C-alpha cells in the first residue's frame, strides 16, 4: 500500500533552490518554492531578481518513495526534521506561501494608531485571507509577522491596514 503524499521540507545546497525545483517539476513532483523580488546592487548596475523567501529550503508534495527519490538529486542535502521527526507542512501553509507571490509588488502602508505593535490579527481580504499574524511597526509602516510553524520560520510582510482585523473582532 503506497503512503499518502504530504508536503515535506528539503534543505538544498546554497543557491540551488530554483534548479532543484525545476528538475523536480520536470520529474512530475509538485514543488512549492516561494520567491520574492529584491533589488540587488552591484558596483556597475542594479537589477531586480527573484530569490527564495526561505533560502536553502524547498517544499515538495511527496510520498515516502518520492521523498527518497528527491534525496538523490545532487542539489538536495536532506529532508528537514525536528527532534527526529520529518517536518510536514500543512496544506493551509502551502496555500499561504503560494499566495505570497500574488501580493502586489508595492503596497502603500496606512497608519495604524488603533492597532498597537504586538496585537494579534487575522487577514480578512487579499491573497492571504485567513492568515494570522502579529502587528509590528509604527504609524509610518505596518508589518505583519506570520509564523510558518512547520519550518519554524516567520515571514515579515508590509500589508495595508484595511486587510486585517484584530482577532478579538475589532477592525484594524
TrEMBL record:
Swiss-Prot/TrEMBL GO biological process terms: DNA-templated transcription elongation
Tree of life domain: Bacteria
Limits of the NusG-like N-terminal domain: 6-96
Record key words, sorted: Transcription
NCBIfam families given in the database record: antiterm_UpxY
Listed name of the protein: NusG-like N-terminal domain-containing protein
Amino acid at each position: 500500500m503506497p503512503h499518502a503524499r504530504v508536503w515535506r521540507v528539503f534543505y538544498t545546497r546554497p543557491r540551488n533552490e530554483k534548479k532543484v525545483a525545476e528538475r523536480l517539476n520536470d520529474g512530475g513532483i509538485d514543488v512549492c518554492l516561494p520567491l520574492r523580488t529584491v533589488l540587488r546592487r552591484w558596483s556597475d548596475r542594479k537589477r531586480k531578481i527573484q530569490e527564495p523567501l526561505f533560502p536553502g529550503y524547498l517544499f515538495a508534495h511527496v510520498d515516502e518513495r518520492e521523498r527518497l527519490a528527491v534525496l538523490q538529486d545532487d542539489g538536495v542535502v536532506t529532508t528537514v526534521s525536528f527532534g527526529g521527526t520529518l517536518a510536514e507542512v500543512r496544506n493551509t501553509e502551502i496555500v499561504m506561501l503560494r499566495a505570497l507571490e500574488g501580493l502586489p509588488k508595492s503596497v502603500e502602508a496606512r497608519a495604524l494608531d488603533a492597532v498597537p505593535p504586538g496585537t494579534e490579527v487575522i487577514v480578512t481580504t487579499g491573497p492571504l485571507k485567513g492568515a494570522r499574524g502579529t502587528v509590528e511597526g509604527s504609524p509610518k509602516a505596518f508589518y505583519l509577522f506570520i509564523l510558518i510553524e512547520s519550518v519554524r520560520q516567520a515571514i515579515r510582510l508590509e500589508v495595508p491596514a484595511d486587510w486585517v482585523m484584530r482577532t478579538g473582532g475589532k477592525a484594524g
